[in-house]
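This section describes the prediction task in plain terms. A model, or a person checking by hand, is given the sequence of a single protein chain and must write out its three-dimensional structure as a string of tokens. No templates, partner chains or ligands are provided. The sample shown here is typical of the held-out split.
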Amino acid sequence: MPLQARQGKVNQWHFAHSSRGASKLTEKECDFSFWVSVLSMAKQIISKGGTLTVPSCTKYLGHDEIFITDEKEVQLPELEIEKGSFDAYYCFGKYSIGLNFTTPEKEYHATYVSNKGVGVLEISLSRALNAFFDKTRRSDFKNILKEIIFQDVDNKKWIYHPKIEYYINRYGERLQDKPPYDLDFVLGGMGHVRLGCYECVHCKLRWRGIQECPDCHNRNSQVVKCR
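The expected answer:
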């Protein structure tokens, strides 16, 4: 008895079981059908475009967190659905963005990005389950799912961002996904050492860490505090 996403007479999306060939399914099978329907609805929603909040992208040079790009809002017109390995895709001209949705039943297995002009963004839809069964919710499920897709940030992560190439070419293997240790913990007992967000006037690098550029090691007048 497959669970289907349907649009009602007053433009309210809901889920319903198809009666054709109906049989009693296990709870696990019903859960799977729920996520298939959520994914289908998500593709319909994203296809219309909108204002998409994308997360920041950071890497590490040693213990310093390097800012590749900031959290921002991106205006997306209508997107192509199921293009190549992406659930949704849009081309800005020189650059493109490919979106992939994930659920408890659908993981995204990142592969090598051959086209360095394509940003790959993963969007988790996992919050949809609790939202759908929340009896206190005041909005219809379509609007809740739109919020998860377009406005939420914590459920998104960059698998690849075109700006990373500059940093890879400059720092090579020094550039890492994680720090070698937790600097906040190490400096916890050293009150005179404070972490902050800085920008080097000389090399334009932006980072979170101590007040010394992790690239050219400038400090003091050559380093300015940023947000």
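For orientation: Residues 181-225 form a domain with the Rubrerythrin, domain 2 fold (CATH 2.20.28).
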